[in-house]
Amino acid sequence: MLLFLSILGILLSVILLYFNSRKNTSTIYLGVFFLLLSLYGFYQYVLLYSKSVFLVSLFLFNIAIICSPLYIIGPMLYWYIRSVLTDNSRLKRKDIWHLLPMMIFFIAAIPHAFVPWHEKVEVARKVVEDAGFIEVYKATLLTRIFSPASGFLTRPILILGYTLWSAGLFINYLIKKKVSVVLSKQHFMKKWLFLFLGFLLILEVTQILLIIRAFETHFSELFFALNVIRILSVAGLIGLFISPFFFPAILYGLPRVPELILTSITEKVDPDHVPGDPPKKTNPFETDYLISIHHKADSCMKEAQPYLQPDFNLAHLSVHTQIPVHHLSYFFREEKKQHFNDYRNEWRVNHAKNLIRKGRANEFTLETIGLQSGFSSRNTFLATFKKVEGITPSTFAAQIKN
Description:
This protein has helices spanning 2-20, 26-48, 53-60, 63-66, 73-86, 100-109, 117-129, 141-145, 148-175, 187-216, 219-223, 228-242, 259-269, 285-303, 314-321, 325-335, 340-357, 366-372, 378-389, 393-401. It is mostly helical. It folds into 2 domains: 2-251, Rhopdopsin 7-helix transmembrane proteins (Up-down Bundle); 294-401, Arc Repressor Mutant, subunit A. The longest helix has 30 residues, at 187-216.
């Protein structure tokens, strides 16, 4: 089960990082979080259940490289929650202090990597024969100063601390919803964060209890037996890895709608709205914001005509409208149900049609009209025009002339 969940977590992290990291930077923190948590689970599987001398030798004696990154699971969680709540995924200069535990552990574990291979195999064989050997084995310089149990406890305790810190940030935003309303009416996001932090809290508390009880009794008596703590721990891990598939919108944390935008939207939608009165809250938060994106995108295309530039893309539209790229991407995919390239090409085709109506087809070739409309080549213009209008530009020009 632990091996399966670890593989599932790695797959989830790959999906998050590969498909969404460019659209929403905060997804990078979430993807790395799931990746490291999955590696943590795989590390436990190797030591306790794999029964492979080679894997145990590899993992136990290279923990400086394998386990050091596990100390930034907590920071990744905190940075993700902070970026979602503030809609700002940029790291601050002082965030470098979050990497200090990882650096300390890395330095303490480096000497252990240079142990002769035959000694590594001998220790690994003892661990495979009796998992309780981990209780007395000193794997790093820190475990020579502190007890071996402290080495196992530092990671889950650190993650638990960051979980409580992140939960505090979330609760603070909920309490101060009149001032900080980044998640105003984003019910899907609230539910996701509740479940995400809840499952993580269950997982870390049970992991700490498992480790404490394991060192008090014997590893095999606890980790290889079915008990309430293990069941809760597995439930927390399953919930953590499964929950993102039920909340696809977590990848796109939409910010609050500024009052000026919300008011302008209300006035357009509700002609009886009295200026100066607070905007009506008849629509969900996401609808209000997506309406504003639609309005700003269309206004930009109509007034600035950026589509006339052959290299115009979604990033350029983001600069013109001051709307984050991942918000625009979400709008076109989920709300407008249209690829941005198709949206842009419709404006170009309409521009070409206007030029033809004005008689420019009598002065210029259709290829020139296509280039003046933003298309990069004659073939692209002809193919796109026929796709949008159902007829070729020459046929359209003939109809206009007749």
